[in-house]
Amino acid sequence: MKISLFFVVLLTLNSCAVFQPKSFDKYALEEKLVTINRDSITLKEILAINKGKQLFIQVFATYCPVSQDSFNDVIAFQKENPSIEYVFLSVDHSYFDWKRGLQNIKVKGQHYYIPKKGKGKLGAFLKLKTIPRFLILDENGEIKLYKSSSVSQKLKNKIK
């Protein structure tokens, strides 16, 4: 009886474990994104451009009111952490909607559009169901914070 109770408790606790990958899988790294100039780029290339830098990544949509509200927190965070690189990945409906929406966004950083929105390999890797979504990567490209829906204290604690 005690042994079976032990296994039930163990299975219950194990099923509550949070998925926290340390790096992007190869499929997510190879997904094609689009630059502001409409050039194609992969997440792998974006990480290579920013090699040796700590990254703050936000997945958002310009039309999303919750994403728009989060930008004030991001701007404040940018003022407190100017040495971090900021990457913004948009899941807008179209490239043109995204470009038009960027005119109203005051955050500074690298902006990219995800043509497959949350339906591609990157969205699957992120288990993207809601936006905005925040990630923190260290200087080695290792994921320090996989999932945060706001610029929270948890996110701030992941910054050195």
Characterization of the model:
The chain has one domain: 3-Layer(aba) Sandwich (Glutaredoxin). The chain contains 7 helices and 7 strands, in the order ααββαβαβαβαββα. The chain has helices at residues 2-15, 26-29, 43-49, 65-80, 95-102, 121-126, 153-157; strands at residues 32-35, 40-42, 55-60, 85-90, 110-113, 133-137, 143-148. Strands 2-1-5-4-3-6-7 form a 7-stranded mixed β-sheet. The N and C termini lie far apart (48 Å).
Q: Using only CA atoms, what is the Rg?
A: 17 Å
Helix count, DSSP H or I runs of 4 or more residues: 7
User: H/E order of the elements?
Assistant: HHEEHEHEHEHEEH
Helix content: 25-40%
Strand order of the largest sheet: 2-1-5-4-3-6-7
Q: Major beta sheet, specifics?
A: 7 strands, mixed
Q: Mind telling me the CATH class?
A: Alpha Beta
Secondary-structure content class: alpha/beta
> Would you report the number of β strands?
7
- Total of domains: 1
Question: Gist?
Answer:
By secondary structure, the protein is an alpha/beta fold.
Give a quick set of tags describing it.
alpha/beta; single chain; 160 residues; Glutaredoxin; globular; seven-stranded mixed β-sheet
Layout of helices and strands, plus pairs?
Elements: H1 2-15, H2 26-29, E1 32-35, E2 40-42, H3 43-49, E3 55-60, H4 65-80, E4 85-90, H5 95-102, E5 110-113, H6 121-126, E6 133-137, E7 143-148, H7 153-157
Parallel strand pairs: 3-4, 4-5
Antiparallel strand pairs: 1-2, 1-5, 3-6, 6-7
